[in-house]
Structures are given as C-alpha cells and as structure tokens.
Amino acid sequence: MSDPMRSLLTNDGVGLECTGFASKLVSGNYESACLLKIGREDFWPKYGAHIETNWEAQGLQRYPSPHAESWH
Questions:
Q1: pTM of model > 0.90
Q2: Paired residues of 31 in beta bridges
Q3: d(Cα 36, Cα 14) in Å, to the nearest integer?
Q4: I need a labelling partner for 13 at 20 to 30 A (CA). Which of 40, 48, 57, 66 fits?
Q5: What is the count of structural domains for the chain?
Q6: Are 8 and 33 spatial neighbours (Cβ–Cβ below 8 Å)?
Q7: What does the longest C-alpha to C-alpha distance in the chain come to?
C-alpha cells in the first residue's frame, strides 16, 4: 500500500459522499457516483506529487462511433 493511501486510511479528515445514483431499467443494473473528500490540510502539500491525475483512465481505449457526427 502506498504512503498516501495508508495516510488516508489511518487518519481522520476523509469522507465519502454519494453524488449520484442511477438505475438502468433495461439491464437492471445500478450505478452510483461518489466523491472522496480529503479535508486534511497537510495531505496535499505532503502527497500531492505522488498522485497522478486521472490515473484510472490510463490504458483506456476509445473507439469512435460511426454516428459521432449526429451527436453534435
């Protein structure tokens, strides 16, 4: 476990807030969007350089739709 993650799990000042919820009626699936709040003032100066922006999208492959023009 990385130092930033260990710091978040062992200290107070971190919260999780549900910002959205959806149900897909066709497939019967549920989706939720959550926001991780870091309220500790010392976290970003100490660990800000260790966190990559948009790390979850690395390696994401995008395929254009043949109907992309109609979305504008």
A1: no
A2: 22
A3: 7
A4: 57
A5: 1
A6: no
A7: 49
